[in-house]
Specification:
Elements (H helix, E strand, L loop, with lengths): L2 E9 L4 E9 L2 E6 L8 E4 L4 E4 L1 E6 L4 E2 L2 E2 L4 H10 L2 E6 L9 H12 L6 E4 L1 E2 L12 H7 L3 E5 L11 H13 L3 E5 L3 H13 L6 H5 L3 H17 L4 E3 L5 H12 L4 E5 L1 H5 L22 H13 L4 E2 L8 H4 L19 H11 L4 H15 L16 E11 L18 E11 L2 E5 L2 E2 L19
Parallel strand pairs: 1-4, 1-5, 6-9, 9-10, 11-12, 12-13, 13-14, 14-15, 15-16
Antiparallel strand pairs: 1-2, 2-3, 5-17, 7-8, 17-18, 18-19, 19-20
Bound molecules: N-(aminocarbonyl)-beta-alanine and zinc ion (ZN) (2 copies).
Length: 458
């Protein structure tokens, strides 16, 4: 046996128990009390939790966006992931007019493979159907291991938006090949209407980023997306959902039995729109913007009720000088914030405080993401699954500051946030990649996860 993790409090989505975990050939080979097994490496984790590695299904690494490229590439983004207990990241390659899906993803896979410090998968953003011919490629994409496609209802001027007709074609084709459609839901025309008005009135601070995307701008698009998913009876995954009315509409559709999933992000759970009034408000600019307290409370309530399926980060950091482009014009601020290293520590700290259970944190950050996106080897501490394991010390005090993060960005919206409890070790397929504050992994260790189409339930 390669590794034996002894005496930890093992957490699954539905139970917690003291046990040992044995690892062989990168897989969990045995779980039980006082296992009579010899191993090359034995780690006693008494008093600590043993959790499945988190799966951050929403990151943008080295993404060309907002007039620049997001500040974390594949190496630094996955290194940060490892140090935050994330053992698999999903990136979003972007298909552009005239390009194919497999071609787009293969290009990114070639970039990522030598750099990845944790395992990785791709959703593919679809921006143009190439006069319909792209639809013929969906099956090939699934065969390659891409079982989710993403559309934007926004970013019209950036040429990323698809219209409702295209969206429905993507949704139908995705369903036909056993895949799912991810959607960024906001209404671009109403956003542009407000931007034009605020610019004329000389209202240019980050606060107007929030006011140009009022809560109903997301609500309308969430409801429209749900409407089409119901009308065509197709699966839908709404990314970074932040609105109270949106999450309530999703709850109803889910209760009616539709195949609809909701993702939210830690920044929507922690901050409110008040951050946009701060001097550094531009650093929090992301889309959809962080909403008011009512929406924040509704998201936590939806987590407790099970309406929110996944918490992921939308990790898309930009450097301070890039955020500063929008000091006097909020429309010039590149949209996006850092998060991949903060996801699991934050959600687990909420469990440690008693706001949610540790089981819920595991379900939202690991088990549901694996289930919804077809990572059949990952997401839970079960015999036969990949030994993607996090050891969590519930007593360790940690204050987030940019210098103790492992990314390439120069600031973080999480600066100064104090957490009770923190991951102390991360294993990817049994290999130690993070140890007590230090990255100890290596680029190239991460493997491409070929996902399987099909069942998302159960
Ligand atoms: O502001 C954001 N969310 N930036 C990244 C791109 C996206 O919309 O997910
Ligand atoms: Zn988005
Ligand atoms: Zn995103």
């Amino acid at each position: 046996m390669e590794l034996l993790i002894k005496n930890g409090a093992v957490v699954t989505e539905s139970s917690s128990f003291i046990a040992d975990i044995a690892v062989k050939d990168g897989k969990i080979s045995c779980i039980g009390k006082n296992l009579p097994i010899e191993a090359k490496k034995v780690v006693d984790v008494s008093g600590k939790y043993v959790l499945p590695g988190a799966i951050d299904v929403h990151t943008h690494l080295a993404m060309p966006f907002g007039g620049t490229v997001s500040a974390d590439g594949y190496l630094s983004g996955t290194r940060a992931a490892a140090c935050g207990g994330v053992t698999t990241v999903f990136d979003y390659p972007m298909q552009r007019k005239g390009k194919g899906i497999v071609e787009t993803v293969e290009e990114r896979n070639r970039m990522c493979a030598p750099e990845a410090c944790v395992d990785y998968a791709f959703h593919c953003i679809i921006t143009d159907l190439n006069d319909g011919t792209l639809l013929d490629e969906f099956q090939a994409a699934v065969d390659y291991g891409i079982t989710s496609f993403k559309c934007f209802m926004v970013y019209k001027k950036e040429g990323l938006m698809v219209d409702d007709g295209t969206l429905v074609k993507v949704m139908l084709k995705a369903k036909e090949v056993g895949a799912i459609t991810n959607l960024h839901a906001e209404n671009p025309d109403i956003i542009d209407f407000y931007i034009e008005r605020f610019k004329k009135e000389g209202k240019t601070s980050a606060w107007y980023h929030y006011l140009s995307r009022p809560e109903f701008v997301e609500e309308e698009a969430d409801k429209r997306a749900i409407h089409w998913a119901k009308a065509f009876n197709v699966p839908l995954y709404i990314v970074h959902l932040a609105s109270k009315a949106g999450v309530e509409a999703a709850a109803v559709a889910k209760m009616e039995g539709y195949d609809i999933y909701v993702e939210t992000c830690p920044h929507y759970l922690e901050f409110t729109s008040e951050v946009y009034k701060r001097e550094d408000g531009r650093n929090f600019v992301c889309s959809p913007p962080i909403k008011g307290k009512e929406s924040q409370d509704a998201l936590w309530a939806a987590i407790r009720k099970g309406t929110v399926d996944v918490v992921a980060t939308d990790h898309c950091p930009f450097q301070s000088y890039e955020k500063d482009w929008g000091k006097d014009d909020f429309t010039k601020i590149p949209n996006g914030c850092a998060g991949v290293e903060n996801l699991y520590p934050y959600m687990l700290s909420k469990a440690n405080e008693g706001k949610i259970s540790f089981n819920t944190a595991v379900k939202l950050c690991a088990t549901n993401p694996a289930r919804i996106f077809g990572c059949t080897e990952k997401g839970s501490l079960t015999v036969g699954k990949d030994a993607d394991i996090v050891i969590y010390d519930p007593d360790k005090e940690f204050t987030i500051t940019v210098s103790n993060m492992h990314s390439d960005y120069d600031h973080t919206i999480w600066e100064g946030k104090k957490l009770k409890g923190y991951p102390v070790q991360t294993y990817v397929r049994g290999e130690l990649v993070y140890d007590d504050g230090k990255f100890v992994g290596k680029p190239g260790l991460g493997k491409f996860v070929r996902r399987k189409p099909g069942s998302r339930k159960g």
